[in-house]
Amino acid sequence: MHSSFKVWVSISLLIIVVALAITAYSLGYLTPSIVVNVVGKKPVNAYVQVFAVLPPGHNESLIEVWSGTASNGVVRVPITVLSKIASEWVAKGYGSEGVGIEVVATYVSGSTVYYDMMFTAYEPGTLLSTINNPMLSMARLNYMTVSLNLTNTYQLAKALTKPQVPTPPAPPGCWWVNITSKSWQTPIIKIPIAWVYDNVPNYLGGALGAYSTQTTTATVYFYASMGLAQGGSTSVTYKFIGYSTYTSSSNWNALGFGLSQPSAGFLYQNGTIGVATLQLYCITGPTNQYAYEAFVASILSGIGTSSDITYLNGFLNLYKAYTGYSPQYVPFDEIYVGGGKTYNYWFSNVQAYSPPFGFSGTIPVGLIIAYIAQTLGKSLSIPGFILANLAAGVQVTTIKVSIVEILINQFNNLLSSYGSGDLFVAALPVKYSSSSGNYFYYPFILGFNVTGLGSYSSGTSIYVDGPGVIFNPCIPINSYNWTVYVSIGNSPLLVPGGTVTATVYNSQGSVVWSGTFTIPTSIDGSPPHQPAVVSIPWTIFNYGVPYNTYYIKFSYNGYTTPQGSIGYGSSTTTITIYAELQSCGP
């Protein structure tokens, strides 16, 4: 009897707990949320806004769905604010696809406005299942987390004074307005993932392929980009601001080109592209600070092929029309085909061997949406020179995927016993800043030109990753290592070969050590376009209290491809190293 009473009490308590939980859920106390962390130099109570990307069929690309103020740098956005839009996405067949939201944080201190923007994506079907299932909701209270670092600034003419508290719903200080007249998305179109022009189609041929998963299921993310500008200024800060959508990489398709095949063509996915313009407003009125954004709004799985050169030329020709410059092409590699050899390169290698860049390539979504708008008679109220330079970054969750592969495996053997040529890769000739802001690069586009063997040259630049402070080791090691990325021009594409010399100087400018290291090449069987790893013996440094200062000069010594068609120039950079003495005793 006593035992039965205990069981009855336990069951009763369980029923009460569940009932209370369901009641709390129905009242919104246990609603799953998007957790937004806002950090400047310390957590700040920034004003946070959430914009949702709209599904195909809408004229606008973004709509604001929530706003509020952070408490001690944290704000919780209930996912129920997305339920209506998520239902639209599901109804249109995108329930399991990644669709985007944009989170914006703004904070004012005196006359300085600090702000940040970040895209991320969710699956509409999963979000709705979570909302509609109380038990599932309680297990996913922190539905996703977004962190904003407030790295961008704008200077007001004078400081905002207190008390200047506006009438709700406007926030105190400053906020961003989505200018609906400048927000637009395309109908469902062919979005070129990669393309190729074969300038010697009667001599060299091959294939362009994408999305082959070798060992595991992977996801391909499409990152949005932004151009920050004040008024009509030509000074623009470009950067990537998180991913707006994602899709599976479990597709494969290839486009043949050259030698009885089309001389040009592209791989594409069906989807929509969006543009938006956000303007900074303050309680004193609108400012002249704008954020111009372009992004892949939706993407459907499946890769198609097309040889529609008119479409390719249509959006590529707009670049010069908008900027006054022709698109830049980077001399990437020398081609040699014959004697059992073929040329192929997987652009997932760029993401693997050039991690400061972080992508496998980019897509010129600004040019594409400009071309589509032009053909539809739609006017986009975005400065053309900014729109032309907005791209979507392509990132894959694992490098064991041939995200984009270019293969040259055919040549006209009636003309010669082997085939030779050069491969060029398209690049936007504008600087994009890294997320950390400590370096810049020209983003390359997944567009290729195959030419006959020529005579070309390119400058180079160096980015070094490694320790800035070193210690006398308490556990035996042989050396300290630095990774040296030698880029073609200012692009993230790495040179195909050469050597790097590292020279160590003490604080008096005297040389204390020097060594030369080889960049791996495709000739010795290694994957091409890798960085050099510089190993310096730890014993050459004199460790001091608080520290001794050293300088390491990294010099790329230039490189000429085996058949002499491309020459890469020399370059140097110097970093400062602090050698500190540490105690290794108990």
In total, the number of strands is: 38
Q: What is the radius of gyration?
A: 27 Å
Strand portion: over 45%
Average pLDDT number: 88
| Alpha carbon gap, first and last residue | 63 Å
DSSP helical segment count: 8
Oligomer, anyone? single chain
What is the overall shape?
globular
- Give me the secondary-structure category: mainly beta
Contiguous low-pLDDT stretches (5 residues minimum) are 5-9, 12-29, 163-170
- Biggest sheet descriptor: 13 strands, mixed
Helix content: 10-25%
Write the layout of secondary structure elements.
Blueprint: H1 2-26, E1 33-38, E2 47-53, E3 62-69, E4 74-78, H2 83-91, E5 99-109, E6 112-122, H3 124-132, H4 134-139, E7 142-148, E8 152-155, E9 174-178, E10 184-185, E11 189-198, E12 204-213, E13 219-230, E14 237-248, E15 253-257, E16 264-282, E17 285-299, E18 304-306, H5 309-323, E19 328-337, E20 343-346, H6 348-353, E21 361-363, H7 365-376, H8 384-387, E22 392-396, E23 401-411, E24 419-427, E25 432-433, E26 440-441, E27 444-452, E28 456-458, E29 460-465, E30 469-471, E31 479-488, E32 499-506, E33 511-518, E34 532-537, E35 548-556, E36 559-560, E37 566-568, E38 571-580
Parallel strand pairs: 1-7, 11-27, 28-37, 30-38
Antiparallel strand pairs: 1-4, 2-3, 2-5, 5-6, 6-8, 9-16, 10-16, 11-16, 12-15, 12-23, 13-14, 13-17, 13-22, 16-17, 16-18, 19-24, 20-23, 21-22, 24-27, 25-26, 29-31, 31-34, 32-33, 32-35, 35-38, 36-37
Helix pairs in contact: 2-3, 5-7
Structure overview:
With about 575 residues, the chain is mainly beta. Helix content is about 15%, strand content about 45%. The chain contains eight helices and 38 strands. Strands 9, 10, 11, 13, 14, 16, 17, 18, 19, 21, 22, 24 and 27 form a 13-stranded mixed beta sheet that branches. β36 (about 560) and β37 (about 565-570) form a beta hairpin. α2 (about 85-90) crosses α3 (about 125-130) and α5 (about 310-325) crosses α7 (about 365-375). The longest helix is centred in the N-terminal third of the chain and has 25 residues, at about 1-25. The chain is globular. Residues about 5-10, about 10-30 and about 165-170 have low confidence and may be disordered.
